[in-house]
Amino acid sequence: MANVFQELATWFHQVFVKQFDAWVLLGFVAQFFFSMRFVVQWIASEKAKRSVVPIAFWFFSLGGGGLLLVYAIQRQDPVFIAGQALGLFIYIRNLWLIANERKAAMSKVD
Q1: What angle do CA 67, 14, 83 make, to 5 degrees?
Q2: pLDDT tens for residues 45-59?
Q3: Which residue range or ranges hold the Lipid A biosynthesis N-terminal domain (predicted)?
Q4: Which domain holds residue 62?
Q5: Residue 4: is it exposed, middle or buried by C-beta count within 10 angstroms (0-12/13-18/19+)?
Q6: Which of 27, 41, 60, 95 lies 20 to 30 Å from 85, alpha-carbon distance?
Q7: What is the CA radius of gyration of the chain?
Q8: Residue 60 to residue 78: CA distance in whole angstroms
Q9: What is the maximal distance between C-alpha atoms in the chain?
């Protein structure tokens, strides 16, 4: 059993300590922003007592997804690159739709 813990400790050191550099830090920051979108969505839904997707969700998605795409490109991971690139298109499109909706609402007020 002690051998299993030693191997796990060695693996943990190899993955989380030995490889740590500015790119890994960027990856963690990007993942934090990407994860914050769910926290923002959850808090907004709890306040409204229904499922809500606030605009901040899309901005955190765009920021985190953009940084994760940079990280994926640097790591040369084709699956991660494709997934994040497609996500960016979706986040931008949702922000565009929200902006058009707000613009239309403002023109009705004038």
Answers
A1: 30
A2: 999 999 999 999 999
A3: 26-97
A4: 22-109
A5: exposed
A6: 41
A7: 19
A8: 23
A9: 73
CA-CA distances (angstroms) from residue 72 to 37, 50, 78, 85, 110? 19, 35, 8, 10, 46
Domain assignment present for residue 9? The answer is no
List CB contacts of 33: < 8 A, sequence separation 6 or more: 60, 63, 64, 67
Would you state the structure tokens that stand for residue 97, as one six-digit string? Answer: 């739709």
Quote the CA–CA distance of 66 and 69 in Å, as a whole number: 5
* Both tokens assigned to 17: 């300590």
Is residue 44, in this structure, part of any structural domain at all? yes
